[in-house]
Here is the input.
Amino acid sequence: MQKSLNRVQEAFLRLVHNRAYSHAYNALKQMHPADLAQLLPYLQEREQQWFVETLLKTRKLGGVISELDENKVLEFLELVPQEEFVKVLEEINADDAADLIAGLPEGQRQEIFERLSGSQKKAVGKLLGYAPDTAGGIMSPEFVSMEQTLTVGEAIDQLRAKASGEKEEIYNIYICDADDQLVGVVSFRDLVLSPPDKTLQDIMERNPVAVRPHANQELVADMIARYNLLSVPVIDENHRLIGRITVDDAIDVLKEEATEDIYHLGNLAQEDHISTPVWTSAKPRALWLLINLGTAVLAAATISLFSETISRFVILAALMPIVSGMGGNAGTQSLTVVVRGLALGEVDWSLALKVIWKELAVGLFNGVIIGAVIGVLTYLWYHNLTLAMVMVLAMVGNLIIAALAGAFIPLLLRKLRQDPALASSIFVTTATDVGGFLLFLGLSTIFIKLIIS
Amino acid sequence: MQKSLNRVQEAFLRLVHNRAYSHAYNALKQMHPADLAQLLPYLQEREQQWFVETLLKTRKLGGVISELDENKVLEFLELVPQEEFVKVLEEINADDAADLIAGLPEGQRQEIFERLSGSQKKAVGKLLGYAPDTAGGIMSPEFVSMEQTLTVGEAIDQLRAKASGEKEEIYNIYICDADDQLVGVVSFRDLVLSPPDKTLQDIMERNPVAVRPHANQELVADMIARYNLLSVPVIDENHRLIGRITVDDAIDVLKEEATEDIYHLGNLAQEDHISTPVWTSAKPRALWLLINLGTAVLAAATISLFSETISRFVILAALMPIVSGMGGNAGTQSLTVVVRGLALGEVDWSLALKVIWKELAVGLFNGVIIGAVIGVLTYLWYHNLTLAMVMVLAMVGNLIIAALAGAFIPLLLRKLRQDPALASSIFVTTATDVGGFLLFLGLSTIFIKLIIS
Here is the structure.
């Protein structure tokens, strides 16, 4: 469960905090870029300056920056002189460089891009042409491709020459025909296990799964996860190989998408992290809160319809949030199950009736349970049987509303090709707030004579 | 975004629905087990029977079952005769078989296990000894290990003999010394690129990262994701290799953990899916709702402290849920960011002050924004300046409470080695409900003379 820092990182931080910089320098040289990438927030301002300078000196900055999410790169960059940053961008993989440039504030983006030189500029330019959440936006344009007429022995010889210059891990060799069209794939395993005089054509897997550059990144990640792939080739409209997406890219996408779902359920924008500045976090949250405020005002208006009833029996004011609140909780439960089921591909619109029916049954069941408990409590508290019965009926009714709204709203949003997590929690709590107050105060108004007698 | 069914799956379903069973049979034979695994809920009862029988006939059932989450296997198993199921368990990988058996109802578990034969029984028995959420619980006991004194050429020869019988993908060769202790790892890439007369000792990566069988699965998945690994070896206390965990296992764990976090934030237990029976879903949800009911009663008790004030000015009853509700929304925002930050390893207790300070600033900022808006609205609605001022003060105060609770509670839970997502939303909404009612009704009571004059 302890996910934060490992022992190596903690030891390094102690050295820095104790100003044992030469020891820290040696420790840093041994550390994995992914471990170093996590440390910036744990350092004081002066230590951060030393840290970044040391990463530059030891030529580790590129590796570290490649490991960072876009939202955390900006913090690093404030500490790096622009010319050094450009140098780093030229050293790292083109796809990482493109991600970093895409994450820069608009003003700097063009400026930094223009300063790149030659081949890296060309590669990065191509990648920047794809939207960041597509296959093209996450693919690496670096891969090993060979012609199918080569023998296994020749392929291995070529590989020795090529692989030494490669920056990224290679998992397999893509086989292309004379027109550069993708026709097959050969894994290292097949290469090792095949006699050297066989041709690649003989051992390759034909018609491998491939994706187009504008395919949604989520779809690609899902494909890699579902079929247990190590990489997926990306091909253009002429079936020519233009890049590949590896399983570690897929993991990043899956994490990103999980964060997005969790954030949308919590009424948050995606660019909101612990390390983002106050203003960057506060602005989008304020927007969501304002939308929520609208629904809260709606609920308040519902209540004020019944001020006459409340003024005659003020205890209702204390009891009414119980009905609306429990509806909100139960609705969130249904919503969460359906949103997650949609994200994991367990359900779609064609199963909507089945899903709604099941949630309805759960809502009815739990409505009876919770209604019974709160009914007894209300009776014990106020010795008023009618009030207790109103409480039971309102609770059962609102938990049914909660189940229907929680199941139906995300399914409908998906059917309309919207993100089922986005804003659905607002719709659901609006339904349960307004529904809860209407039911409880409406029933109370009907039975008010019995209640106050 | 369309994650549910792909074209192959949809075409297959059409064939089945149209009772074109012989075409469907041929289509099924070509389909990937992962694609087939998803389809059960989309079939009618009679179709399901045909489906499972056909999977058995085509010997695809094992592959399909291996792709299923434990919570979905039971549905399948109801359709398979026990003796057939035992046969399937003997064909699939030992780790998948162990997962399936671990997911069975307690009564059947021992019975099915006893019916396994020989080597599979032994392998499964060992794996069942580890908790399901540990490295031991998810590892595969099937791997390729060789002695370091072999040459590359000899290794390739051995591999040809071994690999043909292997059921799972092999990504690398583990190198063990004479005492079976893990000393290195050789990737296929290194094997391909090294001259055949070199020894494995010369080319292996020494002291590879390894984990113990009782390590938490989340930690292992995190390690694989962080260092972009394809697999991690599992070693016992004597440093002997006992299994390996591959990147596709890590992806499953990451998905599972994301589901767990989302569920805990939505007050749900983990075994609750769209396909789980009503009763299995309803029971744990009812438990959570009962806990929530406790906090709702607490909030109601807070309100009833002020029934005197409310009876003198009944409009307060309509306005008070705005303050508590907005606090709940803002608190959920802070909570979500901090819980996700903890899950992604971006933060730990040592950064607590920094995090709380930032959330406090966001809370104050948004408190002023939302307070101003609702203040103006209240004034326009009721033409009561004191009431509007009370609303502003209560809103700012409650959004500060929301920020503090949302940031502090998950950090504290992590510090206490609890799951920061579990139950924290209940603590936060209790704080914002009680806090909101206390602030708004308390201030109203203090200024009641000014309000009703």
